Amino acid sequence: xxxxxxxxxxxxxxxxxxxxxxxxxxxxxxxxxxxxxxxxxxxxxxxxxxxxxxxxxxxxxxxxxxxxxxxxxxxxxxxxxxxxxxxxxxxxxxxxxxxxxxxxxxxxxxxxxxxxxxxxxxxxxxxxxxxxxxxxxxxxxxxxxxxxxxxxxxxxxxxxxxxxxxxxxxxxxxxxxxxxxxxxxxxxxxxxxxxxxxxxxxxxxx
Length: 206
Description:
The protein contains 9 helices and 5 strands. Helix 2 crosses helix 9 (184-202) and helix 5 (90-107) packs across helix 7. It is α/β, with parallel strands linked by helices. The two termini are 19 Å apart.
Protein backbone atom coordinates (compact mmCIF):
# COMPACT_ATOMS: atom_id res chain seq x y z
CA UNK A 1 0.00 0.00 0.00
CA UNK A 2 1.23 3.54 -0.68
CA UNK A 3 2.42 5.53 2.29
CA UNK A 4 -0.13 7.87 3.87
CA UNK A 5 0.72 11.45 2.91
CA UNK A 6 1.41 13.60 5.96
CA UNK A 7 -1.12 16.13 7.13
CA UNK A 8 -0.12 19.78 6.76
CA UNK A 9 -0.49 22.01 9.84
CA UNK A 10 -0.33 25.82 10.02
CA UNK A 11 -0.07 27.57 13.41
CA UNK A 12 -0.92 31.28 13.49
CA UNK A 13 -0.31 33.54 16.46
CA UNK A 14 2.10 35.55 18.58
CA UNK A 15 4.56 34.86 21.41
CA UNK A 16 2.49 31.98 22.77
CA UNK A 17 2.50 30.15 19.43
CA UNK A 18 6.20 30.73 18.73
CA UNK A 19 6.98 29.72 22.32
CA UNK A 20 8.85 32.77 23.59
CA UNK A 21 11.40 31.74 26.27
CA UNK A 22 11.11 27.97 25.71
CA UNK A 23 12.94 25.60 23.36
CA UNK A 24 11.52 25.06 19.87
CA UNK A 25 10.37 21.53 20.68
CA UNK A 26 8.49 22.86 23.74
CA UNK A 27 6.23 25.25 21.80
CA UNK A 28 2.68 24.07 22.10
CA UNK A 29 2.20 23.47 18.34
CA UNK A 30 5.32 21.28 18.39
CA UNK A 31 4.12 19.39 21.47
CA UNK A 32 0.73 18.92 19.81
CA UNK A 33 2.38 17.35 16.78
CA UNK A 34 4.45 15.08 19.03
CA UNK A 35 1.27 13.91 20.76
CA UNK A 36 -0.55 13.33 17.48
CA UNK A 37 2.35 11.30 16.14
CA UNK A 38 2.36 9.18 19.28
CA UNK A 39 -1.29 8.45 18.53
CA UNK A 40 -0.38 7.30 15.03
CA UNK A 41 -1.25 10.45 13.07
CA UNK A 42 1.06 11.13 10.14
CA UNK A 43 1.64 14.88 10.25
CA UNK A 44 4.34 17.33 9.19
CA UNK A 45 6.14 19.63 11.59
CA UNK A 46 4.02 22.74 12.12
CA UNK A 47 4.43 25.67 9.75
CA UNK A 48 4.42 28.56 12.22
CA UNK A 49 3.61 32.16 11.38
CA UNK A 50 4.00 33.94 14.70
CA UNK A 51 6.21 36.62 16.24
CA UNK A 52 6.42 37.80 19.83
CA UNK A 53 4.48 41.04 20.23
CA UNK A 54 2.23 40.65 17.21
CA UNK A 55 -1.27 42.10 17.26
CA UNK A 56 -4.07 40.97 14.99
CA UNK A 57 -3.16 43.40 12.20
CA UNK A 58 0.52 42.50 12.48
CA UNK A 59 -0.32 38.81 12.14
CA UNK A 60 -2.34 39.65 9.04
CA UNK A 61 0.67 41.42 7.53
CA UNK A 62 2.90 38.53 8.56
CA UNK A 63 0.60 36.15 6.72
CA UNK A 64 0.76 38.38 3.66
CA UNK A 65 4.56 38.26 3.76
CA UNK A 66 4.77 34.51 4.39
CA UNK A 67 2.23 33.64 1.66
CA UNK A 68 1.21 30.23 3.08
CA UNK A 69 0.09 27.84 0.37
CA UNK A 70 -3.25 26.09 0.96
CA UNK A 71 -4.78 23.74 1.61
CA UNK A 72 -3.73 22.89 5.15
CA UNK A 73 -5.35 19.99 6.94
CA UNK A 74 -5.24 21.85 10.25
CA UNK A 75 -4.93 25.53 11.15
CA UNK A 76 -4.69 26.80 14.71
CA UNK A 77 -5.14 30.44 15.66
CA UNK A 78 -4.32 32.17 18.94
CA UNK A 79 -4.10 35.96 18.85
CA UNK A 80 -5.15 39.05 20.77
CA UNK A 81 -3.06 39.42 23.90
CA UNK A 82 -1.04 42.27 22.42
CA UNK A 83 -4.18 44.04 21.22
CA UNK A 84 -5.38 43.98 24.85
CA UNK A 85 -1.95 44.97 26.16
CA UNK A 86 -1.92 48.02 23.88
CA UNK A 87 -5.42 49.01 24.98
CA UNK A 88 -7.19 48.49 21.69
CA UNK A 89 -11.02 48.53 21.75
CA UNK A 90 -12.97 45.30 21.70
CA UNK A 91 -14.87 46.22 18.52
CA UNK A 92 -11.58 46.60 16.66
CA UNK A 93 -10.46 43.20 17.93
CA UNK A 94 -13.74 41.65 16.77
CA UNK A 95 -13.33 42.95 13.24
CA UNK A 96 -9.70 41.95 12.89
CA UNK A 97 -10.11 38.57 14.58
CA UNK A 98 -13.04 37.74 12.32
CA UNK A 99 -10.92 38.61 9.29
CA UNK A 100 -8.07 36.39 10.49
CA UNK A 101 -10.48 33.55 11.20
CA UNK A 102 -11.92 33.81 7.70
CA UNK A 103 -8.41 33.62 6.29
CA UNK A 104 -7.66 30.58 8.45
CA UNK A 105 -10.77 28.85 7.13
CA UNK A 106 -9.78 29.69 3.55
CA UNK A 107 -6.33 28.19 4.16
CA UNK A 108 -7.95 24.83 4.97
CA UNK A 109 -9.70 24.86 1.61
CA UNK A 110 -12.84 26.31 3.21
CA UNK A 111 -13.22 23.55 5.79
CA UNK A 112 -14.05 25.48 8.99
CA UNK A 113 -14.08 22.33 11.10
CA UNK A 114 -10.34 22.03 10.40
CA UNK A 115 -9.69 25.30 12.28
CA UNK A 116 -9.01 25.29 16.02
CA UNK A 117 -8.88 28.57 17.96
CA UNK A 118 -7.17 28.71 21.34
CA UNK A 119 -8.17 31.40 23.83
CA UNK A 120 -5.82 34.09 25.14
CA UNK A 121 -4.15 33.21 28.46
CA UNK A 122 -4.32 35.64 31.37
CA UNK A 123 -0.93 37.34 31.69
CA UNK A 124 -2.27 39.39 34.60
CA UNK A 125 -1.59 36.51 37.01
CA UNK A 126 2.12 36.38 36.17
CA UNK A 127 5.11 37.60 38.15
CA UNK A 128 5.80 40.12 35.39
CA UNK A 129 2.38 41.74 35.80
CA UNK A 130 2.77 41.83 39.59
CA UNK A 131 6.21 43.43 39.37
CA UNK A 132 4.89 46.01 36.92
CA UNK A 133 2.08 46.91 39.31
CA UNK A 134 -0.60 45.97 36.80
CA UNK A 135 -4.25 45.70 37.84
CA UNK A 136 -4.99 41.99 37.68
CA UNK A 137 -8.76 42.45 37.75
CA UNK A 138 -8.74 44.90 34.83
CA UNK A 139 -6.56 42.61 32.72
CA UNK A 140 -8.78 39.61 33.50
CA UNK A 141 -11.93 41.54 32.63
CA UNK A 142 -10.57 42.84 29.34
CA UNK A 143 -9.27 39.41 28.32
CA UNK A 144 -12.63 37.85 29.19
CA UNK A 145 -14.27 40.27 26.75
CA UNK A 146 -11.74 39.46 24.03
CA UNK A 147 -12.12 35.73 24.58
CA UNK A 148 -15.91 35.96 24.49
CA UNK A 149 -15.59 37.70 21.13
CA UNK A 150 -13.24 35.02 19.82
CA UNK A 151 -15.51 32.24 21.07
CA UNK A 152 -18.56 33.81 19.41
CA UNK A 153 -16.85 34.43 16.10
CA UNK A 154 -15.40 30.92 16.09
CA UNK A 155 -18.78 29.34 16.79
CA UNK A 156 -20.38 31.46 14.06
CA UNK A 157 -17.74 30.29 11.58
CA UNK A 158 -18.26 26.62 12.47
CA UNK A 159 -14.72 26.16 13.80
CA UNK A 160 -13.52 24.78 17.16
CA UNK A 161 -12.77 26.94 20.20
CA UNK A 162 -10.62 25.77 23.12
CA UNK A 163 -10.44 27.68 26.41
CA UNK A 164 -6.95 27.51 27.91
CA UNK A 165 -7.36 30.75 29.90
CA UNK A 166 -8.41 28.86 33.00
CA UNK A 167 -5.20 26.85 32.92
CA UNK A 168 -3.13 30.03 32.98
CA UNK A 169 -5.10 31.28 35.97
CA UNK A 170 -4.89 27.99 37.85
CA UNK A 171 -1.12 27.68 37.36
CA UNK A 172 0.34 31.21 37.66
CA UNK A 173 3.72 29.79 38.68
CA UNK A 174 4.17 27.78 35.49
CA UNK A 175 6.01 30.52 33.65
CA UNK A 176 9.36 30.72 31.90
CA UNK A 177 12.38 32.52 33.33
CA UNK A 178 11.09 35.86 32.01
CA UNK A 179 8.22 35.68 34.50
CA UNK A 180 5.66 36.32 31.77
CA UNK A 181 5.42 33.62 29.15
CA UNK A 182 4.26 30.06 29.85
CA UNK A 183 6.77 27.39 30.76
CA UNK A 184 7.06 24.11 28.90
CA UNK A 185 4.99 22.50 31.66
CA UNK A 186 2.12 24.93 31.12
CA UNK A 187 2.23 24.41 27.36
CA UNK A 188 1.87 20.66 27.92
CA UNK A 189 -1.28 21.34 29.93
CA UNK A 190 -2.57 23.47 27.08
CA UNK A 191 -1.98 20.63 24.62
CA UNK A 192 -3.89 18.21 26.84
CA UNK A 193 -6.85 20.60 26.48
CA UNK A 194 -6.34 21.39 22.78
CA UNK A 195 -5.60 17.90 21.46
CA UNK A 196 -9.17 16.51 21.75
CA UNK A 197 -10.50 19.41 19.66
CA UNK A 198 -7.76 18.81 17.11
CA UNK A 199 -8.60 15.11 16.91
CA UNK A 200 -12.25 16.06 16.39
CA UNK A 201 -11.21 18.52 13.70
CA UNK A 202 -9.20 15.89 11.87
CA UNK A 203 -11.99 13.34 11.98
CA UNK A 204 -12.80 10.03 13.68
CA UNK A 205 -9.85 8.20 12.09
CA UNK A 206 -7.39 10.56 13.82
